[in-house]
Sequence to fold (646 residues):
Amino acid sequence: MLIIGISCFYHDAAAAIVKDGVLIAAAEEERFTRKKHTADFPTLAVKYCLEAAGATIEEVDHIAFYEKPFVKFDRILTTVLAEWPLSYNSFIRAMPLWLKSRLWMKKTIRKELGTEKDIIFGDHHLAHAASAFLVSPFDRAVILTLDGVGEWTTTTRGYGEGIDIHLEDEIQFPHSIGLFYSALTAYLGFEVNDAEWKVMGLAPYGKPTMVDKFEKLVQLRDDGSFRLDLQYFAHHHSAKQMINSRYERLMGRPRRVPESELETFHHDVAHSGQKMTEKLILNLARSAYEKYRIPNLCIAGGVGLNSVANWKILKETPFEKLFVQPAAGDDGGALGVAFWVWNCLLHQPRRFTMTNAYFGPAYENGQISGFLKSAGIRARELSREELVAETAKRIRADRVIGWFQGRMEFGPRALGSRSILANPMNPNMKDIINAKVKFRERFRPFAPSVLREEVSHYFDLDDDSPYMLLVPKVKNEKRDLLPAITHEDGTGRVQTVTKADNPLYYDLIREFQKLTGVPVVVNTSFNVRGEPIVCTPEDAYNCFKKSGIDVLVLGNYILDKDANGEVVQ
Amino acid sequence: MSMASMWKRFVKGWKAFWHPVGKVQTIILLSVLFFVILPFFSPIRFKDPLRKRLGGPSFWIKRKPVVLDLERHHFPF
Fold:
């Protein structure tokens, strides 16, 4: 039985396909269209999923959309009425879209897919919950879903058992941890729904001098619930603004102009806002543990990508195990709704545990060779052993590597398939990668990939972290050894690598360890600032050519640049 | 130039001309709706649908159990 899940029309559109309860393929539309965070219908992602399953749309048994559009429309209309006349701009922006296509979602989806099949409409937060729990290794777990907003819901608390999901309590719009964090992101002059990572990266540079101000923005209860003080926010009546002038007065300064200089004040705001967010999340997690007394926790929703908070949950609450699915945001809704149909609606048993994120398209050596030939590019073909040895040598020589191998990752992180790799021991490597490739803010950290069995020797962690969603401390004695991946506060956003999940990447890091004694490499996403992660060999080559990446490894092919940055033919 | 290609060009030009007009028209119609019709419904705000009031022992809302029936979920609500 084939089930296609679709999420789109907000941000990070995606599709996923499940065959007899097993995930076959999943991908974000942005990777194919090259439009970052695109909300468009995921036509190309669906096409890829169908190809991966070897099926046509008519052979798919169920097509599922990740939320209920009418319930969302009810929220939009209610908000417009409740905030009239402040909601004028929001109304004018939203209505044409809704009246034209979103209210007729069934028709829209059928038209896009070219089918007359019936569509199943899930529930946004149920899809999030399913995307974590139903593919987790747990038979029983507490579930928390935390995001900006779905239909009405922004936060849920419940539990999963076997194939059942029970979300019992919820917080509704406009009270939302995701939107609280987005407001902070907007205040700091970064782009909402894109640059929340930057706030998290900036936070360690500051001090918690403004936590008392953030505490004025939210009322917390011991039972884990919370409510925003809407006097300070604008997201409930504006489509463009997250905060109002009262928020700025409370902080003591107007919002930062994008791209202007970041001062100590901004560092402190980021730090204090992150602290407040952690306080909210930890309060929720503790209350959920008190209620259900289950040691396993699944988190889904965009807030689940706050890896610093995830780590604190493991350290500071009674939960012993945590599972956050790599595409925890709305992209994961596609996967979630497909599993929700399979397990919860069709009452089928669980047959799949997600242990890695490699569900995107792969390109065989023959396809890569075809591309290289057609583009007139000469590259050296190496055996697997030679490839590993040559790449490891280049990393040790402080070359920046574009690493394109196997199936693309599902979710926002590059995890060794579409990655830029570098030497973690070079104290200048962060600046080198920034200057050559990423062109991003200096304060943002680069993440380490480490062999799973070695992780406890280098980090304050002895568990799996395959999706870079935990941020433990780098061991004190290793910080000087790993300057390129040690962040300002002595932490690192770790990816653990196992032979079972990514044998080639594992062997590469092992080879690097043989050369240097260190089983860690710098791993950052294979893209330049403002672009999605590369998907095809052509994307990879274009990124290699226009950036300062020194070496491109495309499957078994390797290309070097000379000292002048010209590709060596 | 064939009749077909002339017709295509005419349709293209027609659309290009009327698209911005349509946009303006939409804004005018929606503005009328917003300022003339919606005020009759805006007393909804007195029921505090966005739960703006602070205070109280808990902010949780009980979720209704989901009906696990495939047919039920063929509707977008």
